[in-house]
Amino acid sequence: MTDAIGTTAAAAHPRAGRVGILDVTREYGINAVRERVAQLRAAGQRHAALAIERELELAGLRTTPDAA
Predict the structure, then answer these.
(1) How many CB atoms are closer than 10 A to CB 37?
(2) 11 located within any domain
(3) Is 29 among the domain residues?
(4) Which of these, 10, 11, 18, 29, is most buried using a 10 Å CB contact count?
(5) Domain limits for position 52
(6) What phi and psi values does residue 8 have, to the nearest 5 degrees?
(7) pLDDT tens-digit profile of 42-65?
(8) Residue pair 61/21 in contact by the 8 Å Cβ criterion
(9) How many Cβ atoms sit within 10 Å of the Cβ of residue 13?
(10) What is the reported pLDDT for 14?
(11) CA distance linking residue 43 with residue 59, whole number of Å
């Protein structure tokens, strides 16, 4: 797409403005994220829970609490 001046407009990145799992864990804490995953599983939202767990894993965060 070209504007009136003749420059090409850059398309917005498809993930522009997307909040990442690191942002969520910084804001709410890992325990809140784990609780949300548990809530999703309890509600039958297995795919959503798996997606969050995968993001946690890719970010290098543990998906289960440390055993004491």
Answers:
(1) 20
(2) no
(3) yes
(4) 29
(5) 21-58
(6) -90, 130
(7) 999 999 999 999 999 999 987 666
(8) yes
(9) 8
(10) 54
(11) 25
Q: Which amino acid is at 11?
A: A
Paired strand residues for 8: 2
Q: What six digits make up the tokens of 41?
A: 């599983």
* 3-state secondary structure at position 11: coil
In the numeric block, which tokens belong to residue 56?
């946690």
Q: Residue 64 domain-assigned?
A: no
Residues whose CB falls within 8 Å of the CB of residue 8, separated by 6 or more in sequence, listed in order: 1, 2
The total of structural domains in the chain comes to 1
Q: At what angle do helices 21-28 and 30-42 cross, to 10 degrees?
A: 110
* CA–CA gap between residue 62 and residue 42 (Å, rounded): 20
User: Is residue 41 a contact partner of residue 49, using CB atoms and an 8 Å limit?
Assistant: yes
pTM, to two decimals: 0.66
- Taking CA atoms, 51 is separated from 22, 23, 47, in Å, by 14, 16, 6
Question: Cβ(57)–Cβ(63) under 8 Å?
Answer: yes
